[in-house]
Design goal:
By secondary structure, this protein is of the alpha/beta class. Helix content is about 60%, strand content about 10%. It contains 26 helices and 14 strands. The strands form 3 sheets. The protein has an 8-stranded mixed beta sheet with strand order 7-14-13-8-12-9-11-10, with helices on both faces. A 4-stranded antiparallel beta sheet has the order 2-3-1-6. A hairpin with a 2-residue loop joins strand 4 and strand 5. The longest helix has about 90 residues. The chain is elongated.
């Protein structure tokens, strides 16, 4: 179990509201202080005026400029717009405005940069330079006029604000000072300087581009001429002569290819004619003819004679028989005619063979020419690769030369065309109302800051609240039964007309008699709960009960005296002041006593002789009269004499209460623990840390085992309601008020 945190993991709104109720005074005080501080600031603050102007980055003008010069294109992207913002806040623009208005000589403007700490800082710097711990700054070496100029620039840039209006092409610039007219004049000068700088930059860029282009054009012209000469020289050296846009070698190769096709066709035709006539001659077919045979007059005459003889031979053979001499002679004539026709075909075949040889010879010649032309063309094509590279280089230089010449003309025109991409769309005018301080905003921020500070302080106080506030904390942290909350009661002195008797208890303060004077109070009710715990947990006669606390001044003795009186009303009771180091009960009720517990334990005097008595309640009291510091008090309380005394008292009394020392700083209570039947722990409400109580009680297992419960003492009932949880006994405390008569507060 943690020693501090016992809250559930989820948000407990009841506890948050309770914490707010507890700390509202702190929060309210901080809010009031914040509002007072804000009001003081508003009273003492110097009003400042802000003049503004708007500048449009005009894309339409940019397009005109782009038409005249490709070097200065229009602004399209966000980075360019942001660059214009930085340009607006640059030193070049600022110095131009400073020089135009001579702001370094304007006392009102220069006063804007002065601060309360400036003289102190200057004095410290002078002192450090005097003692040699600091070198002279560069400002000291600067010309006074330039130093003032730079100071004015610093003030201007510090008070200048430039922003982009949303996602538009509009720049909004503003300047703040104590003078409305000064603010308007400064921001107007800055805007004008910006526009002039744009024009000057465009002119300068165009001028530089023109100079560069002029040099580049001359260089490109020379390179173009050189590349053209290289092309022509290469053509001449390699014989790359052209006609009609084509090389002569390529044209010759094309013509030879065409002639080769024709020659091959002629050869094939002559070969076919020769093969056909040879086939006819070889077969001996007289009726199989070729074209030239039809055109031959000899063959045609022989054929007519052959046909005529064949006709007559057939007629004679039919009439006279095949063996007739005339038929035989005619057949011999027919054979002669046929031989003569084949002889003529042989002469035609020889002419065909001659034509075939001619065609073949021509084909061979053309084929050889094609081969030679092809070789020349291949060589020319390989050379043309280099030629084309030279031509491409020449064409590139020619195009570059033409392009740069055109751009040069455009740049020359741009120098005389003063168009800027920016223009003022909202002129600066002196403001009629101050821009700061904003009263509503300052008061709102003061309220919020005060509330935040108060909330933080309240939260810190809540975090540092490590004390016992409720009975649930007693049960959770200590694991003890919570017996009741004893309210804080004002203690007043009781005026008495007669001196107390030597044997009487002297109740000099009202709080020691609270249980008797106010028996129906919540004070008395809490002690009755303690009595019930004693009776239930110690069911025997002669109950020995020790009243302890963790730290001094927790009201342990007051609780002991009142509880003893309550117990005395129920049974015979004796109260023993066993705090031999700081006998609080004796100081409260028996300052007239001459002897007590020490004399019983050290001198062996009978305790009956030293008892003080209260006739109203029947309470007996054995005081502790300490005249000197007792160094062995723990030994006395744990001694056999103390055991014998308690045993004797147990035979005579129903309740034996011991007002023991606090168990935190001294060991007396732990030393006497074995002789005590039970302990009641008194914890001061809101003062004693939970950790120290838990560690102290649990440090001695015997004391922890014999603890009957705990009482919260000195409870502020008005504040305790802020610590109650829903369902706890404290939550319903108001409903119990009819059962109590708390008129003693």
């Amino acid at each position: 179990m943690n020693d501090e945190d016992f809250a559930p993991s989820q948000i407990d709104f009841d506890k948050l509201l309770a914490a707010a109720r507890r700390q509202w005074r702190v929060v309210a005080l901080c809010v009031i202080l914040g509002l007072v501080g804000g009001g003081a600031y508003l009273i003492t603050a110097v009003p400042r005026y802000t003049a503004s102007t708007s500048i449009l980055i005009d894309r339409s003008n940019g397009q005109i400029v782009q038409q005249l010069s490709t070097i200065n294109g229009s602004i399209d992207d966000e980075a360019s717009i942001l660059s214009q913002v930085e340009l607006f806040k640059s030193e070049a623009i600022g110095l131009a405005a400073v020089d135009k208005l001579k702001l370094q000589d304007n006392a009102q403007f220069m006063a804007e940069g002065q601060s309360l700490l400036a003289p102190v800082r200057t004095a410290i710097q002078d002192l450090l330079q005097t003692i040699g711990m600091s070198n002279a700054s560069t400002d000291a070496l600067m010309d006074p006029q330039e130093k003032a100029r730079r100071s004015a620039l610093g003030i201007l840039l510090d008070k200048l604000e430039v922003t982009r209006a949303g996602r538009s092409y509009v720049l909004e610039a503003s300047f703040t000072s104590t003078s409305p007219a000064l603010s308007a004049s400064v921001i107007s000068a800055v805007a004008e300087a910006y526009l002039n700088d744009k024009l000057d930059a465009k002119y300068e860029a165009t001028r530089r581009a023109g100079s560069w282009l002029q040099d580049r054009i001359e260089e490109l012209r020379q390179q173009s001429l050189t590349s053209d000469m290289a092309v022509q020289r290469f053509r001449a050296e390699n014989g790359l002569v052209q006609a009609g846009g084509k090389l002569v070698s390529d044209q010759q190769l094309a013509e030879l290819n065409s002639a080769l096709i024709v020659a091959r066709a002629d050869t094939a035709r002559a070969q076919a004619r020769y093969d056909r006539i040879q086939q006819i001659i070889a077969s001996g077919q007289s009726d199989a003819l070729v074209t030239d045979a039809l055109d031959s007059s000899v063959i045609n005459a022989l054929r007519e004679k052959y046909l005529d003889a064949s006709k007559r031979e057939a007629d004679i053979s039919k009439r006279l028989g095949k063996d007739h001499i005339q038929a035989i002679r005619l057949r011999q004539e027919m054979d002669e005619y046929q031989r003569l026709m084949f002889d003529e075909l042989g002469r035609i075949a020889e002419s065909y063979q001659s034509e075939l040889e001619v065609a073949r010879s021509r084909e061979r010649n053309i084929t050889e020419g094609v081969s030679n032309a092809t070789s020349v063309s291949v060589t020319a094509n390989e050379t043309q690769v280099q030629l084309r590279e030279l031509e491409r280089a020449s064409e590139t230089y020619k195009n570059l030369y033409q392009t740069f010449l055109t751009r040069y003309q455009e740049a020359i025109q741009g120098q005389s065309f003063p168009v800027t991409e920016a223009r003022v769309i909202s002129k600066a005018v002196p403001p009629s109302q101050p821009s700061s301080p904003k009263k509503v905003l300052v008061l709102a921020l003061s309220f919020l800051l005060g509330g935040a500070l108060g909330t933080g302080i309240g939260a810190f106080r809540e975090f540092r609240d490590r004390f016992f506030r409720t009975g649930d904390q007693i049960r959770d942290v200590l694991g003890l039964e919570f017996l009741g909350a004893i309210p804080l009661v004002k203690s007043i002195s009781v005026a008495k007309t007669d001196l107390p008797s030597r044997k009487d208890i002297d109740f000099r303060r009202s709080i020691t008699r609270q249980i008797v004077d106010h028996p129906l109070s919540s004070f008395a009710e809490s002690l009755r709960a303690a009595r019930i715990a004693i009776d239930v947990r110690i069911p025997k006669k002669g109950k020995v009960v020790g009243i302890v606390s963790t730290l001094p001044s927790e009201g342990k003795s007051t609780v002991s005296v009142n509880l003893a009186q309550l117990l005395a009303q129920a049974g015979k009771t004796i109260l023993i002041d066993a705090d031999l180091r700081n006998p609080g009960a004796t100081r409260a009720t028996a300052q007239h006593a001459q002897a007590g517990l020490l004399e019983v334990l050290l001198d062996g005097r009978p305790y009956q002789e030293l008892l003080l008595h209260d006739d109203k309640t029947g309470l007996d009291f054995l005081p502790a009269v300490v005249l000197r510091r007792v160094t062995h008090s723990a030994d006395l309380l744990s001694s056999a004499k103390m055991g014998e005394l308690l045993a004797s008292l147990a035979q005579e009394y129903d309740y034996i209460l011991l007002d023991l020392p606090p168990i935190g700083p001294v060991v007396d209570a732990r030393a006497a623990a074995r002789r005590i039947d039970g302990f009641l722990v008194v914890v001061e409400w809101g003062k004693t840390a939970r950790k120290v109580v838990r560690d102290t009680i649990l440090a001695d297992p015997l004391v922890a085992e014999k603890c009957l419960g705990a009482l919260l003492n000195k409870v502020d009932t008005d504040r305790m309601k802020f610590y109650r949880d829903y369902g706890s006994s404290e939550y319903y405390q108001g409903r119990y008020s009819s059962y109590y008569v708390d008129d003693s507060k």
